[in-house]
Amino acid sequence: MSFTVVFINNIVNKTFNTQYTELDQALFTRLQQFQHDYVTDESTEYPYSSQHPYNFWEFINGLDEFRERETVYKINIGEDVKGKDYYDRFYFRRRQGWGKSVFNFKND
After folding, report:
1. Cα distance between residue 108 and residue 104, in whole Å
2. What's the pLDDT at 74?
3. Is the pTM of this model over 0.85?
């Protein structure tokens, strides 16, 4: 993980905590991890697997009720680019949704 990503994650973790939500700490922490998975990172090797105890992706996309269910996602990036190309796409194509991870179920 790059220095910039770690720095930003630290700011977010210090600023947004459970005092702003009615979520218990365990759920809040898992939701933060899912958010980290949801946004691409130039220094991450794709694809990778991520395991979550809740069905966040299905719930957010209106496919299922929110429930506790062990879910493993295969997470990928839309275009495998690094360096300047990554940041150019992240800036100029952000309104088109570039920079979001591509989720698939591990068993697909």
Report:
1. 7
2. 94
3. no
